[in-house]
Amino acid sequence: MPMDERTRADVERAEAAIVEHYPRLVRLAYLVLPPSMGRHRRVLTAHGLVQRALPRARLRRPDGGLPAQRGPAAESGYDGVRLRALRLALAHEARAVRGPAAMPQVWGLRLFPRAGGAEELALDQALSAVPAPVRAALGLWQLEGLDEDAARSVLARAGVEDPDAAQRAAAQLDRETGAGAGALLNSAEFDPCTVQTRPTDLLRRRQRVRVALALAAALAVGAAAVGLSRGDGDRTGHPETAAERALDPGRLQRTPNEQWADTSRVDFTAWPARGRQAGDRELLGRALRVWAAPPADTRIVTSADTSTRPPDHPPQLLYAGLIDNVRVVVLHDGERLVRYAEPEDATPTLHFARVDGADPTTGAALVIGRGNGWMRYLLAPWISEVTVRDLLAPAAPGHGLHVAPDGVTDRIPTPPEGGTGCGHWPAAQFRPSARIGTTAASQPFLVTDLDDLVPARLTSPPPGGATAAGTEGATAAPALRRWARTGCSLGELRGAGVRSVGNWAFAEQRLPEGGGSATWLCTRADTWRGPGSATLTFLPPAGPGRIAGRAADTAACGRFGGPVVGDVRWRAKSGTWYLLAAGSHDVGGLDITGGARATGAENTLAAPAGPDAPAEVTGRLPGGGSVRALRP
Question: Which of 230, 252, 246 is nearest to 329 (CA)?
């Protein structure tokens, strides 16, 4: 039955809009889709959703048929296909579906948008922590250029239950990400139409071609049945499934030894396969089978918010060998590290950890073995030198650490357990090879063990405009002195899936009555899953620091966190109590109200106030607006 003319015109307009604005529509769909899908599936799904946004054709009624009841005219053209693509992307997260029915198929390759820098990575992590309607609102503002009223209307028509709440959350995220969010969302990191590729199956592709040719020949001569041969010689009478291929040790991905020095992606994907048992098919097969279907007595350890799902494609082999009488296999599936540990005469252990978005520093090492009070690292091939130092002894020099040819270090003391005191805090200082890029990329940096599979990087941006999410290291003398006074607080972050911890000295304050100079720190912990926490600490000239404020699941003190303000009560030698307040460099003044009153035009302020007098501290921003002090 032919299409009616009105429908034909609508479909043609929609088709023209999709063709003309295809990259724009796919970028919006990619932003709204859940980042937990992984970049490959997210790219393909975004393309599939936009291609499905073409309206269905309505057939012309036959002569004499009753006309259909008229409703409101369907939107056509660009607005219509954008609305339909948005509905599909929002529904994808709401219904937890696995992908569109007509998703484009790509065989033998995995697709990824071009890797961005630290700012793009931080924005992507912030986006992963909010629901799809919030990402949609941000996309309508920053990618589509809609104002709040127009975006609210589109969100409502797309099925968002509370468009106002979505826009409020998007506005908060927009403030946290700063004025550069629009430019970052328009960068290559968020462009699913300009992608890089990696192979998925190089080892067996030729074999599959031979099998296909054999099957075609058999069909040509009228063979009744064809048995497809698997890599292990088992004739099953049916083609291998994706799950079977993922469990075949012969299909494990192995990165060439020197690829790390000739790639733009310096992370776990650039690690070669190492270890004396990297060719032990029996050990590798056991590790894969236990991962896919752990026996009941298997000990399973997971970092925060890390999936334990079986592999859906052959993972990458990083290591297989004997570590302190324990057979260890480490695998990487593009998003997670999986460490399989098989002690003699004991049940195996599986440890899962998220590592998506790793970089040359956060992908520089993993914990290959652990015992009572010690651990060993397996180092990335680009780490050329390792020393061990005590964070609590900043003046003491570090001592060199021996590294075996396969990248395994000698034993390193682990940080003290909670409740056992904190007389030392070991940290490892890594120096990358100059072969991985710029001078900045080859600067030494610190990491420490926080009971996860991957150590946390320690940073210490200098006072001033930087933030705790900055890329500066923590090896300079002033930074080491600050870590010496706050290092023991790292114990609170154990097992939380922490990616990096930054000690940001956001203000220096002259104390009243000649009390010397105090430092205000914001210690920010960023997790692999995205959200982070912040702790403000007041460091007097001598003595222990005091917690001035805390915030969980926050962008405070991060790259996109904006200004921060804190306050404490402090007693001078005369016995007089003061309320001390400080803000970051972007705070133009401070106000104290309540039981004490004072105002100042700088980012530090002191006012006499009793130890229990109620007071509130507010920071004034140069462009208008205010920020309240964090509470302990």
Answer: 252
